[in-house]
Amino acid sequence: LKVLKRQLEGGPLDYISADYLAEITMSILKKQQNRNPELGYVTDFVDQIEESAELILNKHVCILSNAGGINPEGCAREIQRRLKKKGIQLKIAVIEGDNITDRLADWYPEKEQLSNMETGESFDSVKDKIQSANAYLGIPPLLKALEANPDIIIAGRVTDTSITMAPMI
User: Fold this and answer.
1) What does 140-152 look like in DSSP terms, one character per residue?
2) Phi then psi for 62, rounded to 5 degrees?
3) How far is residue 114 from each of residues 107, 119, 124, 126, 148, measured CA to CA in Å?
4) Residue 18: φ, ψ to 5°
């Protein structure tokens, strides 16, 4: 649990990027959200922010993370709820738009012919079983979020490199 805190205590820095998502993690987070609609994000991240909030605030460090999983807004709300109890207010930017589950019909079958890359099996055989679908967002939404000078940026599915590259740009 002390990883973020240890990084913040380690010396001067401006940004910390924290990558939490893998493809399997997204499916785990969806199952978590199916059991509780308020969840769907990386709860360990919330714990670490709660533990390190004073350091984030005092050191003026911006945390960029994809820990929002499939519910970045819920992740931000939970952080704010916990920090309110501690009397701490951090500015949080939320990046959304990666969840395309409800928009698959916009592409398939008219615009894209989707199939299993390994077997060639048609998307038709699984389209009614889709639990979640997310597109990787890149650097632009992170740059936009950085313009607001937040303490924390919480995204869902963004490219792994974007949370590191955006502050450098």
Assistant:
1) HHHHHHHHT--SE
2) -100, 125
3) 9, 12, 9, 11, 38
4) -130, 110
Asked, as a colleague might, if the bond just before 109 is cis with ω within 30 of 0, I would say: yes
- What span, in angstroms and rounded, lies between the C-alpha atoms of 110 and 71? 29
Which residue from 107, 34, 43 is spatially nearest to 81, judged by alpha carbons?
43
- Per-residue pLDDT of 99-146, as tens digits, reads 998 888 887 677 777 778 888 888 888 888 888 889 999 999 999 999
> Dihedral, CA atoms, 144, 141, 103, 78, nearest 10 degrees?
-90
Structure confidence by residue, pLDDT tens digits, 29-85: 999 999 999 999 999 999 999 999 999 999 999 999 999 999 999 999 999 999 999
Half-sphere exposure of 36 (CA within 13 A, CB side): 9
Q: Which of 51, 21, 5, 9 is nearest to 156 (CA)?
A: 21
Strands (DSSP E) found in 19-144: 62-65, 92-95
